[in-house]
Description:
6 strands, alpha+beta, 26% helix
Amino acid sequence: xxxxxxxxxxxxxxxxxxxxxxxxxxxxxxxxxxxxxxxxxxxxxxxxxxxxxxxxxxxxxxxxxxxxxxxxxxxxxxxxxxxxxxxxxxxxxxxxxxxxxxxxxxxxxxxxxxxxxxxxxxxxxxxxxxxxxxxxxxxxxxxxxxxxxxx
Length: 151
């Protein structure tokens, strides 16, 4: 599992990199629109597509449920692709408390978003500044553990 990184995510401009930044109204229907953003940038055939869509959905939902974004505000989503790396961040309207990657009980209906990000991402982190919270994650393809030629 990747522990959280509390440093701002760097937005370097690299040759061949693809970036997209979109602001969404803080209402539940916009979570599916945020997923469409990932589809537009990665395409459904990308090897990290499913994990990326799942983790983005968690962050967008958290932005709406646990921050001022869901109280008439908005949230921003950035998707950055460079080579094998996919980096996504969601910036919300902030809240009184910091996000918590707390463990929940098996019967709990919530509280699994950040632990899921921690489990599936290569790196992740968050920053809180100027009243906003930004949570980001990076995905890399899993290294091949064996190949057909080795068998």
